[in-house]
């Protein structure tokens, strides 16, 4: 298309704290004159303070304010703005959280330029922009890989592996300690059957990180 395009114009906001990312997006989207970046900010709150007159927000998943994808998507949707995740995609936990929050798609910053532009065009129109990352996050939301973990087994795994005791997990989930131990035994059995034995709590923690059910811990700033 040429710059003389006179059809519907879609207003885009970008939530990313890297200026080079925003500059690169402006360059890429020059190939799609129907979409225009009208605002950018390093956090959702700051973007919404600038404008809520947006058709779409491109959202990075890891932001300096420590906000979660779930709360960011919720704030954007409350303002009437749909979301397309634009991320390096290094953390499956974050991608899954965004997929559950109801985004229109998940696009990697490393994707081919034409794929990024096409995804933004679709999402700006309110259409789903399916990608392999997004589909995989949705499809695996109730199962960890091929393990076939149930949602309740997953709840127990996430809490216990994150450091909670069996007693504490039981209180948080409203079940008995014996039931927690049954779930943990079944989780361990399934990991063992998959060739990924996890007899200790530390090994369960590693598995939960590997499968994207716990966030990768951030290094403390010195």
Automatic annotation (TrEMBL):
Phosphoprotein as UniProt keyword: yes
Family matches, as InterPro entries: CheY-like_superfamily, Sig_transdc_resp-reg_C-effctor, Sig_transdc_resp-reg_receiver, Tscrpt_reg_LuxR_C, WalR-like, WH-like_DNA-bd_sf
Gene3D superfamilies, per database record: 3.40.50.2300, Winged helix-like DNA-binding domain superfamily/Winged helix DNA-binding domain
Entry-annotated residues carrying 4-aspartylphosphate: 60
Parts of the chain that traverse the membrane: none
Keywords, in A-Z order: DNA-binding, Phosphoprotein
The name this protein goes by in its record: LuxR C-terminal-related transcriptional regulator
Biological source species: Nocardia rhizosphaerae
